[in-house]
Amino acid sequence: MNASIIADYLKQFEDYAPEPPKEADSSAASSNSNKFDNGHIFYALLEYIIRELPEREKHTYCYSLSQKLLRVCQSKERNVATYFVNKVEEQYALLNEEQALEYHALRSIFNPVMAYYHYYLQHDYERAEGYMLGLLENIDYLIGHGFLDGMYMKIEQYLNTARVYFNAGQYDKSARYARVVMQYLLSSGKETFEFPFSEVLRSANQLNSILALFFNGLIFKALAKPESGAFFRNDFLLAVFREMDISFNEMMEPATRDALAILLRISEGEEEEGLEMALDTQIFNEKVPASMRYFVLTALLHHNNAGDLLPEPLKNNIRLYQEKELGLTASQINVLRPLNAIV
Amino acid sequence: MIFKLSKYIVVTDVLDPNSEKQQRIIFSTRSGISALIEDAVYQKLQVGDFTGLGNNVLSRFMDYEIIVNNEEDEFQEILKLNKLGVKDTKSVSMTIQPTANCQLGCFYCGQVHSKQTMSADVQEKILQRLIYQLDRQRDTELVHTTWYGGEPLMGYSAIINLSNRMQEIARDRGLAYGAYMITNGLSLKKDIFTELYLHHKITRFQITIDTVKEHHDKRRITKKGESTFDIIMKNIVEICALEHYQARVKHPIFIRMNVDESNYQHVTEFIDYIVSLGLKDKVEMGFFPISNWGDKNAGDEQGLTTNEFAELEIEWLMYMQEQGFTMEYILPLRNYDVCMVVNEASEVYDATGNITPCYEFPYTPKYEDKKYIIGNLLEDESTYNNKTQVRGWYDDLATCNVSPKCSKCNLFPVCNGGCPKDWYNGEVKCPTVKANIEDKLVLQYLMDKSSLKTLM
Ligand code: SF4
User: Fold this and answer.
1) Is the pLDDT of residue A197 over 90?
2) How far is CA A279 from its chain centroid?
3) Where are the beta strands (DSSP E) in B70-215?
4) What pLDDT is stored for residue A334 in this prediction?
5) Is residue A194 part of a domain?
6) How far is CA A343 from the centre of its chain?
7) If you measure CA to CA, which chain A residue comes closest to B141?
8) What is the pLDDT of residues B235-244, one digit of tens each?
9) Which branch of life, at top level (chain A) (predicted)?
10) Are B35 and B455 in contact (CB under 8 A)?
11) Number of helices and strands in chain A (H, E)
12) B46 touches chain A (CB under 8 A)
């Protein structure tokens, strides 16, 4: 494809101006929010436990402990974290497998944070893996006993497991988990797990917000890591998304479906076709996950050095778009290849 | 498992006894979080009855450490967390005294000044010590310096040299760099401010002005007895008028007032004076009680009592609010460290090369004994004493060796003992917040009401 055609197409960014920062969305904190927020799932689990079992105070204490551990992990307080890890371990020691519901429920509350601690603060992938795999069993038990929202935990756990394997350099294993969960989320049927995701979904909005989270989590990670594959032909992403052979969930945003097809085309070596599709579709809108837009934009700029043809102000606008609209920090932009060479 | 109401809470009286909603403010010192609470709920909490609390409220109360595990020895748990938390410090902090000299001779100052300024050798050793600290603290994100004296500006060339080199070290390691300065303000001309503020990242200049001219010039005078108020205020006014004054932070200048029984009546007058100069939105202000320092016992001789000061402090804070000052958060924060003394990543280096854990020790005859000094930068590291008295504060508290009062105090998590040095000296001295915390809670509530920042 001629570079000047691409340069013409990219003129759509000439008028790009970042939107003023939005007021904090207070509804995001409410539990009725359509957005995906895993914190609410844990709280929903607590409420489920309280409904099903006595000892409300003890279970609330366990929940609160896990939240505290999560927070100190997030702020990288590694010594303080050991204090809460010890407290959590005290509670593990008290669990009795014969009281199955409590056993699985409390482990479902503790395991994800313990996995996070070992993965994020200790870089001990093996121990993290142990907690994660155990958790999948615990969640299955809870789903089997009526806690359907456990599906949210399950899909998130698949993504987390994929992340941990990815960071440990085990790309094949990572792709296997990612593929299973993506197949499940993207399809309208019951391909992988107990029942179609649409049975627990609150709305199309929620599905698309979850998809964005999962797409971005996988694609940005893969593109930033040369070991997982070349930028435009990333073996990891191909292993996750190629030939899924599913019928897409009809609530899924059509533009996201287009963007995925373009990403696959380009990654499979059919760059011309992929870019032609890009020119014929409307993927540069906020409904499409940022990572996909970033990938396609980079491919356009890269093709026959089309980026070099752009006038300076347009280049600046595109840079601004990457920062403001796609939410990339300067250091992320530096990590992501091969952006620097182009803009 | 059984649960109880934590003993680390402060509860105000019912805010408005005439209103339908009988509400109090509850402040958890273990978490530093305050919340509005119905009186009826509080009555139940007191007797350990949590049944009426909704799931959400129960979980929040546990999160805020208002309801805690009954089996816990809360004091020991707090100490355990403190000791771990101090190790999680993300900064290496240095207090550097580039000179032992100062132009002033304030009657309450415990330092003995001399003409000594920091040699090139000592400066080099400080940089080496910084590198040593950075290698040791693998999670460091920030290198922070507080320039202190004597009067630090009398060691200006050492400041510039060290600051350039430390910024370079921080840059090379991808770390942030920041600095503060405690100065008498006499030599802080606008060009010097500009250089230090813009190029040496000093974003807070603490300048002491002991209220109005009449009183300031009786006590913060030069060694020859000359007055200083007009010179310092002229500097401040000129600096505040600079175009770039608020380029980095909103309030680069912090005015500290040392208050005792001779000048407390003039605090509001001084606040008015600052307003009349148009500086209300440009400077931050704070009041501190005069206390004993080294061999100078000004605190005993003419200090206000804790209760007197605490009451006045609330009046001054309210007065400032009425005058339209931007008020910062006035409640004490939950910190893991009491102050720099318990943090090994925090050291003071004086002009002679002495390393101490507390900035009140250098140049102060009372603290010349070995137990106060870590070592000297010019000597071999093997000679250093890493167990100076105050560094052991939390261990001593755990065994109730010092200050048994603190182990029973509900403010401990936000105070951590106030000033360890004082307790070791046998002086029982609580910070004023001990006496006015409830008033502060109400004041903060009134300040926050519109945004409900700290409330449930
Ligand atoms: S110094 Fe006073 S206020 Fe602080 S913890 Fe000790 S007893 Fe409480």
Assistant:
1) no
2) 27
3) 91-96, 142-147, 176-183, 202-208
4) 64
5) no
6) 27
7) A76
8) 999 999 999 9
9) Bacteria
10) yes
11) 16, 0
12) no
pLDDT score of A25: 37
Q: Which residue has the tokens 């070991």?
A: A227
SS3 label, residue B427: coil
Does residue A105 fall inside a structural domain? yes
**Is A276 a member of any domain?**
no
Instruction: Mean pLDDT check: name the lowest of A16-25, B141-150, B354-363.
Output: A16-25
Is residue A211 assigned to a domain?
A: no
CB count, 10 Å around CB of A125?
A: 18
Instruction: For residue A69, give its domain range.
Output: 53-147
Cα separation values, B422 from B319, B412, B415, Å: 31, 16, 14
SS3 B3: strand
> How far is the C-alpha of A303 from the C-alpha of B290, rounded, in Å?
72
What pLDDT sits at residue B29? Answer: 97
A60–B59: do the CB atoms touch at under 8 Å? Answer: yes
**At A76, is the pLDDT very low, low, confident or very high (cuts 50, 70, 90)?**
very high
Q: In the structure encoding, which two tokens stand for residue B172, read together?
A: 């090379």
Distance in Å from the first CA to the final CA of chain A:
20
Instruction: Look at A109-123, A145-159, B80-94, B206-220 and tell me which has the smallest mean pLDDT.
Output: A145-159
Question: Rounded to whole angstroms, how far apart are CA atoms A116 and A73?
Answer: 8
Residue that has been written with the tokens 């503020």 in this structure: B197
Is residue B150 reached through a cis peptide bond, with omega within 30 degrees of 0 on the bond before it? yes
Q: Are A237 and A229 in contact (CB under 8 A)?
A: yes
How many domains does the structure of chain A reveal? 1
Residues sharing a CB contact under 8 Å with residue A239, sequence separation 6 or more, in sequence order:
A171, A172, A175, A179
What is the pLDDT averaged over residues A228-241?
91
pLDDT digit string, tens, across residues B397-407: 888 777 778 98
10 Å CB burial of residue B112 (0-12, 13-18, 19+) is exposed
**Contact check, Cβ <8 Å, A56/B58:** yes
Cα dihedral value A176, A180, A183, A186, nearest 10: -110
A243 has pLDDT over 80: yes
Own/partner pairs for A262-267, CB < 8 Å, 24+ apart?
A262/A292, A262/A296, A263/A219, A263/A237, A263/A292, A263/A295, A263/A296, A264/A238, A266/A232, A266/A295, A266/A296, A266/A299, A267/A232, A267/A233, A267/A234, A267/A237, A267/A238
pLDDT of A33 strictly over 80: no
Phi and psi (nearest 5°) for B422?
A: -65, -40
Which of A30-44, A302-316, B249-263: highest mean pLDDT? B249-263
Q: Are A6 and A306 in contact (CB under 8 A)?
A: yes
Residues B97-156: tens digit of each pLDDT: 999 999 999 999 999 999 999 999 999 999 999 999 999 998 899 999 999 989 999 999
Contacts of A122 (CB under 8 A, 6+ apart): none
Q: Which atom of ligand 1 is nearest to the CA of B416?
A: 5
Position B90: which residue type? K
> What spacing in Å lies between the alpha carbon of B412 and ligand 1's midpoint?
6
Beta bridge partners of B92: B143
The model's confidence at residue A21, banded by pLDDT at 50, 70 and 90, is: low
A92 reaches B (C-beta below 8 A): no
Q: What stretch of H or E contains B36? A: strand B33-38
For the entire predicted model, the pTM comes to 0.86
CA distance B51 to B55: 9
In this structure, chain B runs to a length of 456
Pocket of ligand 1 from Cβ distances under 6 Å: B 403, 405-406, 409, 411-412, 415, 417-418, 430-431, 434
Q: Contacts by B9-14 with C-beta closer than 8 Å and gap 24+?
A: B9/B66, B9/B410, B10/B410, B10/B411, B10/B437, B10/B438, B10/B441, B11/B37, B11/B42, B12/B438, B12/B441, B12/B442, B13/B438, B14/B39
